[in-house]
Structure formats: structure tokens, C-alpha cells
Amino acid sequence: MAGQPSWMDGHSVRVMEYAVAIGRALGLSENSIETLRLAGLLHDIGKVDTCASVLEKQGSLTSGEFELVKLHPVHGAEILCQSETLFRVARVIRHHHERFDGSGYPDGLKGEGIPFLARVLYVADAFDSMTADRPYRKAPGKDYAISELIRCAGTQFDPRVVLEFLKIAGGFPCGNEYPGDCMASLPPNLLFKKPV
After folding, report:
1. Domains of the chain by residue range
2. For domain 7-185, which architecture applies?
3. What is the 3-state secondary structure (H, E, C) of 112-140?
4. pLDDT (tens digit, 9 = 90+) per residue, 80-127?
5. How far is the C-alpha of 119 from the C-alpha of 27, rounded, in Å?
6. Cα-Cα end-to-end distance for the chain
7. What is the phi-psi region of residue 73: left when phi exceeds 0, alpha when psi lies from -120 to 50, beta otherwise?
8. pTM of this prediction exceeds 0.85
């Protein structure tokens, strides 16, 4: 995107790569993989409506500024749903900040009510956000990102998606593979079912 903040350089490409890798690990169809590819590349397109001073702000956002940022999935979906070809991608983008426990945005969807591909995109986006520098902080790093995905599985993130991501995380820069035994840190009684 022309004029995008420097911290976003490569972000969408990395999110796309992570989302596609998760989708392949889950055995999703090629149509779903293509939707993830496009959604990863375009997931932040709605930020074109967000003031650059907000996106580049060094400190914490005010509540009003955060509410503005929270509109980017809606704006992105509105842009993309004008194309019949990108309608499915628009749905994924609209819901890529919905939380598994229902406390996300923009619609407060919960669990299985969140489109599955949006749940995949959310994990990919969160991982990249935690492993890249931002204007307001240095990247906490891969180990921190992995620990947060584990800690928030079942609340913020779909635990099935986290499980698949952990299986492939070693293929990404800056760290070691996180084998299945780290799943012991996940909250108990979570059901791991293959998505339909």
C-alpha cells in the first residue's frame, strides 16, 4: 500500500505466509488456501481510512483512537465486498479480530460463530504483530509470541488453530520448533476437532 507506515513493510506478506502455512497444515482445500492468501495480503486494507498520526503514534492510543483503529476490519470488508470475486475474502477480513471468547470486534462473534478462516488469519496476524517492531514498542520476539498464543488459546484464539501453528512454528524465523508437548500449557478441557 503506497504511503503505508514503515513498520508495516512486509507485514501483510508475512501474515499471508503464516496463514497459508496454517491452512495447509490443517489440510484445507485449495479454495480456502487461496482465500487465506488474499485475506492475508489484504487484511489491513481498511487502514487506508485510519489517520496516519494514529497508526504512527509512539505512545498508547486514546480510547477514541483505538475505536478508530478497530474500524479497519469493517472498512476493509466494505472495500472488498464491492467485488463479487472478493466477497468471501471480505468476510474473513471483517472478522479477523473476533476473539474466541466473544470479546473481540467488530461484531463480538464467539467460538464456532467466527468464520474459521478468520480464526486462522487472527493467529497469523497476531504472531507477526508480536514478532515485528511497532512505533510504540520493540518486538517482544518469537518465544513471547508463542507463549502468548498458548496462554490465550481458548480465550483470544481458536485452540485448534494454535495447535496447528505450533506444529509448524519452527519453520519461521527466530526460534525453535514448538512440539506437541508444549500443548500441555493450553487450558484444560479444550476440544480439538478438525474444522469442516
Report:
1. 7-185
2. Orthogonal Bundle (1.10)
3. HHCCHHHHHHHHHHHHHHHCCCECCECCC
4. 988 888 989 999 999 999 999 999 999 999 999 999 999 999 999 999
5. 15
6. 34
7. alpha
8. no
Burial of 53 (0-12, 13-18, 19+ CB in 10 A): exposed
Phi and psi torsions of 137, nearest 5°: -170, 155
Residue 174 CA to residue 132 CA, distance in Å, equals 11
DSSP state of 103: -
How far apart, in whole angstroms, are the C-alpha atoms of residue 169 and residue 22?
9
Tell which residue, 83, 108, 102, 80, has the closest CA to residue 93: 80
User: CB count, 10 Å around CB of 143?
Assistant: 13
Specify whether the CB–CB gap between 158 and 146 falls below 8 A: no
Cα dihedral sign, 36-47-71-80: negative
